[in-house]
Design a protein that fits this description.
Blueprint: H1 11-27, E1 41-42, E2 52-54, H2 56-64, H3 68-79, E3 85-91, E4 95-100, H4 102-115, E5 128-132, H5 144-162, E6 166-173, H6 178-194, H7 213-223, H8 232-257, E7 264-267, H9 269-273, H10 279-289, E8 293-296, E9 315-318, E10 329-330, H11 340-353, E11 358-364, H12 371-381, E12 387-393, E13 396-400, E14 403-404, H13 417-424, H14 426-433, E15 442-445, H15 446-450, H16 457-477, H17 497-504, H18 514-536, H19 540-562, H20 574-598
Parallel strand pairs: 5-6, 5-11, 6-7, 11-12, 13-15
Antiparallel strand pairs: 1-2, 2-4, 3-4, 8-9, 9-10, 13-14
Length: 607
């Protein structure tokens, strides 16, 4: 069905504007005052403190040279006359807590029904943003270490798009360097093995997983025995592009299974020998022109400390310490090749030249040391124009029944994403990887991820959505059946205009039970949760919110089992039934919205 495109301000924005208006009237404070933007209205931490709370008194105390409690009392005396306020409470040291009246709650329910899948969505803001993620070396299949970052980045992109950003999802292909040389050697040995030669044990410094055997067979199919007859340099020229393509095809297939698509796959090799010439040299030249490069010697590491790229010689150095780093960084190795950092500078400079002034990188825990130097380089080369945000995804420990899982033999010492998907499925994998904040270590228990119980967060949330759909279907079986209830193959977002019209005619002020009020409070929070998660770039808040909403719904549903007066469908009271079904529809819509951002299905029924 077609929904009215919303983009209206949410209730926290509304009341923030009202509080600021009161402040302006009382003290003639101008919007240009530094403290103006810090006046906010949020949801209280505890339900007993009402529906909304503002920090205005604490924020204004210094500017007005008054005690916060005095300021809070003056604001409360004004805001208590607001048409949507039922009561106002002032608490030390100056919190102002507000309780909304039923008519305001009613408007929120109507707003959700009208806006539907656009509830909480922001209009396009014209900000272009480059989000680089995964960027796994094309030396093998995606494993558990990549999985968390890949899912985190994909959900972050969904969240940013929902909040109005234009997002380009990019993968940086590390298709040159030592790791690719080792990959070629590894595949060549598998090639010889496929030809019947005894290669013995694979050298420990190469890639030992069985996943390279099919690649070796593909070389036999393409070249026969010819590779054995040419010199090593020619072997590399023939093998390398084929092997990298095979590995990237495998990685793209893994990403697709995870429901992830990238807009751009950027080749590191193209920076060195692409159609535009040596772009690493061009980036270094740009830094030279800005006075950010010099020739010098790095101070030797203290106490035997190992520092990457340190060499005891005079060399070309980037003045990284002038831009916030702890030491300067080398750009060219003693053999004349570029350091990894130099290529990274060129790559991020290329993104800047493509017009991305807002860049996000999603790194694994082992790359956190690069953050400061990358920011320093971008600050220097773009004259501070580029804003670089780096999100680090910490390690995941895989468990089964709370015991560590052994590594996979067929993959060469790691658990692949495919193995995880085969065991728990895409919904559980995506949701559980967002269940903890990205920079916190997490345990992923395979048994818990597939359990059909309230202890499994994804099951608990999906069951809540299925339960909302089920309530509407029950209405169809009753004497009060409505036209346009979604079929068993459709989601709750497919409620028809005719059915929606019936809900909108309902009197939602009759929803006064404490369970109903708690549910409406949760629904009110959704746009603010989206806003907060977007600003912090922390999509785990979405998963947490959905779990909280699902819990409130399940609790209220069970109360109806014990008390028939609280049931959603009452044969003797159509007016209350319609109001409650409208509320259930809102719950289903917001659950569906949140799950869509997470890339998780919103099931119509649970098997």
């Amino acid at each position: 069905m077609t929904r009215v495109l919303g983009f209206a301000v949410h209730i926290f924005e509304e009341f923030t504007a009202r509080i600021r208006s009161v402040v302006k009237d009382l003290w003639s404070l101008a919007p240009s005052d530094p403290c103006w933007s810090r006046i906010l209205v949020e949801a209280p931490r505890e339900d007993k403190h009402g529906d909304l709370s503002t920090n205005a008194a604490m924020v204004l105390a210094k500017t007005l040279q008054m005690k916060p409690l005095q300021i809070a009392t003056m604001i409360a005396d004004e805001i208590k006359y607001d048409r949507d306020i039922a009561s106002v409470e002032v608490l030390e040291p100056g919190f102002i807590n507000m309780s909304l009246n039923n008519s305001c709650f009613s408007r929120v329910v109507r707003k959700i029904l009208i806006e539907g899948m656009n509830y909480g969505r922001k209009p396009p803001n014209s900000i272009r943003l480059n989000l680089e993620s995964v960027s796994a070396n094309p030396t093998g299949p995606m494993h558990l270490g990549h999985c968390r970052g890949a899912i985190f980045a994909d959900v972050l992109a969904n969240l940013l798009v929902f909040s109005g950003y234009e997002v380009t999802k990019e993968y940086y292909v590390n298709d040159t360097g030592v790791q690719i040389a080792d990959l070629v050697k590894s595949v060549y040995l598998r090639y010889l093995e496929c030809l019947g030669e005894d290669i013995g044990d694979m050298p420990a410094n190469l890639y030992t997983g069985d996943y390279l055997k099919p690649v070796g067979r593909s070389l036999v199919e393409k070249f026969g025995t010819m590779l054995k007859e040419v010199e090593e340099k020619k072997q590399i020229e023939l093998i390398e592009p084929l092997v990298v393509d095979k590995m990237m095809d495998s990685i793209k297939a893994d990403l697709s299974l995870l429901g992830i698509r990238h807009d751009v796959f950027f080749s590191e090799k193209s920076l060195h020998a692409g159609p535009e010439g040596d772009r690493v040299a061009a980036a270094i030249e740009q830094l030279i022109q800005k006075g950010a490069i010099y020739r010098g010697r790095l101070t030797p590491p203290k106490g035997g400390e190992k520092i990457e790229d340190w060499e005891d010689r005079e060399q070309l150095l980037f003045r990284s310490s002038d831009y916030g780093d702890d030491l300067d960084r080398p750009l060219i190795k003693s053999d004349g090749s570029y350091t990894y950092f130099a290529s990274d500078v060129a790559y991020h400079y290329d993104k800047y030249l493509r017009g991305f002034l807002n860049q996000i990188n999603v790194f694994g825990a082992d790359h956190s040391g690069y953050i400061t130097r990358l920011r320093a380089a971008l600050k220097a080369i773009s004259d501070g124009e580029v804003e670089l945000d780096v999100k680090v995804c910490q390690l995941v420990r895989l468990l089964r029944n709370r015991k560590p899982v052994r590594m996979s033999k067929r993959s060469g010492g790691f658990i692949t994403c495919r193995e995880l998907l085969e065991e728990v499925g895409i919904d559980a994998l995506r949701f559980m990887m967002l269940w903890r904040k990205n920079d916190a270590h997490m345990d992923f228990d395979l048994q818990e991820a597939i359990a059909q119980s309230k202890d499994n967060p994804v099951f608990y949330v999906q069951y809540a959505h299925a339960r909302a759909v089920s309530v509407l279907h029950q209405m169809q079986k009753s004497e009060q059946a409505l036209p346009g209830i979604p079929t068993s193959k459709e989601g709750i977002e497919f409620v028809s205009q005719e059915c929606l019209g019936s809900f909108l005619e309902a009197d939602f002020t009759v929803l006064t039970d404490r369970g109903e009020v708690r549910l409406i409070r949760r629904l009110i929070e959704w746009p603010r949760i989206v806003e907060m998660a977007t600003q912090a770039r922390e999509p785990h808040h979405i998963a947490s919110y959905l779990h909280g909403l699902a819990n409130e719904f399940h609790v209220h549903w069970h109360r109806g089992r014990d008390n028939k007066d609280l049931r959603f469908i009452l044969s003797e009271d159509r007016s209350l039934t319609m109001a409650r079904l409208g509320l259930v529809t809102c719950i289903g819509l917001v659950l569906s919205l949140g799950l869509s951002i997470l890339g998780v299905t919103a099931p119509k029924e649970m098997q």
